[in-house]
Task: inverse folding
């Protein structure tokens, strides 16, 4: 489906603002909402040709819709991809980006530190369909080839990871995938396409939970997958069949949000680095990870493949689980929520929320300790964020 003003050579900010659906006969300046479940056809032959996929034309919003097209086209351009599709949620994007590319007997190699629901999909659901997953330790990433089998089909990674904010060398993994003819899939949610582009580093498919920074205000759920045309076509056919496509309204909201992604993420990153430097000095903090802190174990990799460090900080409070609970309960300004990437600063305790269904031994192996706090730094003034963190930390260690 067509868009206007989407020249490949434009800068990120220009593409985000000027990539739009074609104007209607009303010559609207801002893309309208296309709140329709279906579309009409000129005649019987036109209808037959569209459903036979001989003619590219909108037919049904479960398949595609102009608002969805605009959202996908922007992400496709940002990520330097060939094609894409948008989903109702980020997890719908994860599931639909993997399932149609797998068959019974296939094998996945994945980094161990991944989003809890993705881990549940790999460890609990896929085995019922005869698909196994092996996990590599982030501290032993250079041994990943030892996990590859003759039936390995997909290499999966998040970077930075959720919730530990670890950074993987995507170029290295891309070379491994190329060498072994694997489909390399990267969840790029934490970085957004503004800070990192995995496809030039060797990825075949890139996934975004648009619910996070892409929306940026905690209003709408959505997911977007972009990548090589040969894979996206399979994903599209599967997704339209099971009905996982994004609603026109949410696609419209998310596409509008992309117009300000660059300026928002710049401020998020500036705030996050200030907060990370403050927490690193605090006596109540046992450990901290933020990609653009020199103390981060993968700092050099982060500097090489990311524009800035993102808005997520992982840190641990001295005193264990009780101190962590006391810290969360003492917060006055920051929100206690399981979301991230909001304009408002959000604090999450992964062990009891987003990763609560991950077995205890797996939590330990992936660094999800009882005192781990995931901090999604918002757009408030950093003085106010620090004031709230300071009083909550003081309460936690009393």
Result:
């Amino acid at each position: 489906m067509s868009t206007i003003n989407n020249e490949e050579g434009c800068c990120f900010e220009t593409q985000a603002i000027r990539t739009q659906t074609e104007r209607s006969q009303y010559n609207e300046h801002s893309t309208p909402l296309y709140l329709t479940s279906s579309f009409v056809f000129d005649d019987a032959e036109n209808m037959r040709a569209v459903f036979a996929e001989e003619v590219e034309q909108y037919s049904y919003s479960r398949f595609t819709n102009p608002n969805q097209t605009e959202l996908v086209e922007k992400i496709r351009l940002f990520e330097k991809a060939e094609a894409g599709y948008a989903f109702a949620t980020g997890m719908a994007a994860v599931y639909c980006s993997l399932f149609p590319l797998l068959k019974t007997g296939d094998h996945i190699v994945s980094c161990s530190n991944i989003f809890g629901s993705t881990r549940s999909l790999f460890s609990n659901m896929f085995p019922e369909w005869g698909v196994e997953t092996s996990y590599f330790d982030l501290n032993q990433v250079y041994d990943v080839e030892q996990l590859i089998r003759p039936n390995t089909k997909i290499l999966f990674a998040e970077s930075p990871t959720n919730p530990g904010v670890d950074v993987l060398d995507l170029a290295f993994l891309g070379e491994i995938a190329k060498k072994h003819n694997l489909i390399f899939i990267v969840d790029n949610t934490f970085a957004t396409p503004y800070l990192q582009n995995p496809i030039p580093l060797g990825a075949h498919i890139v996934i975004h939970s648009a619910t996070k920074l892409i929306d940026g205000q905690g209003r709408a759920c959505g997911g977007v997958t972009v990548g090589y045309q040969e894979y996206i076509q399979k994903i599209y056919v599967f997704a339209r069949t099971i009905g996982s496509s994004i609603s026109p309204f949410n696609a419209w909201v998310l596409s509008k949000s992309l117009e300000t992604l660059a300026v928002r993420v710049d401020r998020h990153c500036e705030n996050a680095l200030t907060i990370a430097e403050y927490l690193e000095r605090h006596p109540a903090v046992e450990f901290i990870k933020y990609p653009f802190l020199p103390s981060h174990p993968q700092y050099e990799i982060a500097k090489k493949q990311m524009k800035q460090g993102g808005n997520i900080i992982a840190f641990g409070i001295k005193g264990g689980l009780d101190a962590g609970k006391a810290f969360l309960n003492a917060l006055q300004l920051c929100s206690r929520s399981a979301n991230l990437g909001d304009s408002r600063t959000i604090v999450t305790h992964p062990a009891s929320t987003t990763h609560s269904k991950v077995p205890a031994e797996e939590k330990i192996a992936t660094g999800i300790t009882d005192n781990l706090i995931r901090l999604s730094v918002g757009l408030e003034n950093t003085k106010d964020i620090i004031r709230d963190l300071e009083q909550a930390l003081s309460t936690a260690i009393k």
User: Anything to note?
Assistant: The domain at 12-258 is CATH 3.40.640.10 (Aspartate Aminotransferase; domain 2). The chain has two domains: 12-258, 262-397.
